[in-house]
């Protein structure tokens, strides 16, 4: 086994172990966040079930100053009062549309709903818990529920009936999704480019501090980027920042690809790639294998997409995939490599700033075909351009 293959195996194993550990940690954290049901469901009683560390997370996120030295009981009173007094500002500046709908659903049910677990719902409640307005509890019958403290219900309900506040939430949500989508597409993008792309879509110039702070606060609750060298938004899916940046720099002539809002929003809702016809062909091929489930095929293709975007070679990807799928004969392997090549040729790559390899190839081919030197027409009795001092008709123009 070559050194490259050994390193690749280590990476694959590390990624698998990381996935398994992450899933176990997520399940453990999920169970821990549900507290015992209480007779009193006011904010002070519900906060009292949280650890001091959890309370400090709420304090820090809400940027409540001068309260870091308070004891737990004092901090609970301070947090409860601050949230009551600043509900409008908190909700207006932090909620996205999905979170808004989620809260309205709870309000319609008198501040309490049974929790149906999905990956998206987990993300939403984690975002709302750090605002101090949602509390997961475990009912006596064993079912899991979400609670809005009864002393918060009226003030939250009133806030969410304010048209100006709702308008601001929808505006922020549009910016969140555009930014998330563009970062997913480009992998790494400078702040000024991101700002310009958003301006091109919404037609409104956003104040720099507003845009950055809005994205930063949202990212604290639902991480989708890292901030690099004080100028780059980096997708959390990027493995090697320096490698992708280097490849982008070497293609300075390539501009960041433009996308319409629909494509950007689709990318914001999928951290891997929006599937095109080549992804679907790969999927159709995979599900015909024995023992390959639809869920496995989807995850497998998303992993391929992520490796392509992270600048893995076809050779490396085939080696990695061969550890997960057994190709019983050479024909199946050739078919897989052909499909993989199609996917790679039509994948929006980070090193190409959102373009696909086929798009770049076609642009270069078109530029080459139009770069024909137009020669000036020479009269037959004019001096020949070769420098012979003969007339053109008696020199290069003969024949």
Automatic annotation (TrEMBL):
Positions in coiled-coil regions: none
Pfam family, one: SEC-C
SUPFAM superfamilies xrefs: Sec-C motif
The organism's place on the tree of life at top rank: Bacteria
Cited InterPro entries: SEC_C_motif (IPR004027)
Matching PANTHER family: ADENYLATE CYCLASE-ASSOCIATED CAP C-TERMINAL DOMAIN-CONTAINING PROTEIN, UPF0225 PROTEIN SCO1677
UniProt protein name: Zinc chelation protein SecC
Organism of this sequence: Clostridium polyendosporum
């Amino acid at each position: 086994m070559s050194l490259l293959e050994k390193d690749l195996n280590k990476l694959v194993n590390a990624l698998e172990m990381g996935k398994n550990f992450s899933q176990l940690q997520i399940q453990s954290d999920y169970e821990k966040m549900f507290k015992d049901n209480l007779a009193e469901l006011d904010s002070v009683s519900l906060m009292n079930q949280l650890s001091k560390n959890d309370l400090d997370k709420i304090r820090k996120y809400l940027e409540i100053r001068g309260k870091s030295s308070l004891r737990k009981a004092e901090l609970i009173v301070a947090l409860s009062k601050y949230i009551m007094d600043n509900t409008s500002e908190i909700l207006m500046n932090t909620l996205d549309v999905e979170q808004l709908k989620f809260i309205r659903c709870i309000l319609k049910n008198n501040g309490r709903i049974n929790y149906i677990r999905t990956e998206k719902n987990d993300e939403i409640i984690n975002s709302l818990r750090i605002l101090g307005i949602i509390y997961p509890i475990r009912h006596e019958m064993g079912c899991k529920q979400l609670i809005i403290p009864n002393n918060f219900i009226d003030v939250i309900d009133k806030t969410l009936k304010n048209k100006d506040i709702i308008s601001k939430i929808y505006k922020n949500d549009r910016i969140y999704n555009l930014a998330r989508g563009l970062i997913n597409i480009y992998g790494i993008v400078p702040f000024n480019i991101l700002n310009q792309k958003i301006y091109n879509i919404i037609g409104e110039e956003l104040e720099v501090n507003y845009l950055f702070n809005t994205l930063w606060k949202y990212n604290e609750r639902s991480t989708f980027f890292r901030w690099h060298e004080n100028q780059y938004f980096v997708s959390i899916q990027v493995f090697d920042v320096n490698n992708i940046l280097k490849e982008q720099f070497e293609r300075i002539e390539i501009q960041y690809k433009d996308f319409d809002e629909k494509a950007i929003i689709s990318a914001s809702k999928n951290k891997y790639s929006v599937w095109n016809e080549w992804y679907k062909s790969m999927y159709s091929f995979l599900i015909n294998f024995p023992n390959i489930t639809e869920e496995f095929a989807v995850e497998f293709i998303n992993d391929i997409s992520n490796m392509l975007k992270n600048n893995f070679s076809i050779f490396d990807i085939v080696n990695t995939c061969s550890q997960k799928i057994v190709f019983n004969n050479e024909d199946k392997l050739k078919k897989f490599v052909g499909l993989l090549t199609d996917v790679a040729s039509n994948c929006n790559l980070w090193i190409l700033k959102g373009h696909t390899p086929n798009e770049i190839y076609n642009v270069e081919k078109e530029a080459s075909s139009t770069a024909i030197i137009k020669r000036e027409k020479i009269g037959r009795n004019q001096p020949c351009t070769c420098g012979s001092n003969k007339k053109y008709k008696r020199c290069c123009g003969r024949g």
